[in-house]
Amino acid sequence: MNLSPHGLIAAISMGNVLFYAFAAMIACAALVMVISQNIVHTAVGLLFTLLGVTGIYFLLDAEFLAAVQLVIYVGGTLILIIFGVMLTSQSQRSRLGPSLPQVMVALTLGAILLIALVVAIHHVTPTLARSQPAPGEYPMDLLGQALLGDALAPFELISVLLLVAMIGAAYLARGRKRSNENSGSRTP
User: Fold this and answer.
1) Average pLDDT value for residue range 119-136
2) Distance CA 124, CA 136 (A)
3) What phi, psi does 38 have (nearest 5°)?
4) Inter-axis angle of helices 39-59 and 14-35, to 10 degrees?
5) Which segment of 60-64, 104-108, 171-175 scores lowest on mean pLDDT?
6) Residue 95, strand partner residues
7) String of b and e for 141-160 (b: at least 16 CB within 10 Å)?
8) CATH number, domain containing residue 7
9) Total domain count for the chain?
10) pLDDT (tens digit, 9 = 90+) per residue, 76-122?
11) What is the DSSP string of 30-73?
12) Per mean pLDDT, which of 1-5, 33-37, 157-161, 166-170 is the most reliable?
């Protein structure tokens, strides 16, 4: 093994650097998401965790999975969570406080899942090293045609309809909040 500076630089590729950067971002954001007691900070931690997973999918040349991750989870689910928090919460600064039994159950389950993950990776890694697919075996255009076909326009129309419904729900919740404040301030 060449340990000269040039050999070391050649061994470290840009893909490796990006992978470790995304992995660090995922780990830090997941840690913030888990230990934060502020619901908005938790949602932001989830956002950066999902974005990091999207980046790793792109590095693995799984563009379809990356696009699905970005559109469905980051673009859809997370936005709905944030809207739900903002519309239903009395205060965006509300605190989440787990009890001691909840923390103990979470730590126990987390440790069991970590051990299972390490064992699974240990058993699967030799198999994966032997069976790498050849590059270019993932026809994105055929996959997109199979999933959507000629239904792209109705699919986009439904997404616009969902956006309008979400804006309408926000408007109705805001109006209901104002009417509750007005009726609460009057004394009979």
Assistant:
1) 66
2) 23
3) -100, 125
4) 160
5) 171-175
6) 38
7) eeeeeeeeeeeeeeeeeeee
8) 1.20.120.1200
9) 3
10) 777 777 777 777 665 555 556 677 888 888 889 888 988 988 888 77
11) HHHHHH--BHHHHHHHHHHHHHHHHHHHHHTT-HHHHHHIIIII
12) 33-37
Reading the block at residue 67, the tokens are 């696009």
For the chain, what is the radius of gyration of the CA atoms? 23
Q: What angle do CA 137, 140, 145 make, to 5 degrees?
A: 130
Give burial (CB, 10 Å; 0-12/13-18/19+) of 2.
exposed
Structure tokens at 84: 């739900």
pLDDT(19) > 80: yes
Q: Which structural domain range is residue 77 located in?
A: 1-97
DSSP 95: B
